[in-house]
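Sequence, structure tokens quoted for completeness.
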Amino acid sequence: MPNFDYEAPTSLASALELLARPGEISPMAGGTDVIDQLKNNRRNADLVVDLKRIPDLLVLESNGSGLRIGSAVSCTEVHNFTAENGNYSALAESSELVGSVHIQNRASIGGNVCNAAPSADTIPSLLIHEAVAHTASASGEREIPLIDFFAGPGQTVLQKGEILKELGVPTPSANTTSAYLRFIPRNEMDIAVAGVGSLIEVDPSSDVVTKARIALASVAPTPVRAYAAEEFLEGKNIDVEVIAKTADLAVEATVPITDVRGSAEYRKELIKVLTKRTLNICLERLA
């Protein structure tokens, strides 16, 4: 591993001052990706700034407007909190899939987002719940809809010296539920060949879908929303035929590659299957 300096500030102001320095500065929320990248020469750093001791980045709470997740909060903490809360089923499921239990205890949701892997499990769940990224830098703060946060594989719109401060997730209505599923060759410690998060809001008086959100992982350079599938599903009563058509339309949002884990066509078929399954899970949860 190359040599680098290390700092562990205890305030956001101190961290932002360090991140504004010249040179290659790497923020670290959990380190499960950053350290491996440094070790394998896929990332360079003159200074690594550990964010795990900053109270502003460790916020995890649900208030009147929704859920606040600090960028350094671990996947385990997010899973436990959302599993108890019950309003964010897809996020509870996906945060339990990031590596092994040991990795989940260290890795953060914010780090998973900022690593910007197309296969990241937590991102589709955040997208269907319409999360907003709150960023901070020495020059101020920004709010960015999470769908606009990703610029390419491993790339975000964060500027030099800017970090993800927290994720804001609006409170869903009482008639809303979500689900996340992925396909992997092994039971754990593997990367999704494809992943789907689905969210539906249903009018209980008519059983009509009033809101639909579907997000896909590992089938495009960035996580994507299946807008055509969402638009088709909204305004309809869900049945087998509607779900099948929705799944077909979800594939239109994909531009998958062929690699050692699966062909492009295989990934498209997986998206169909996972979309159907997540929508059926949502229906079961609303029953």
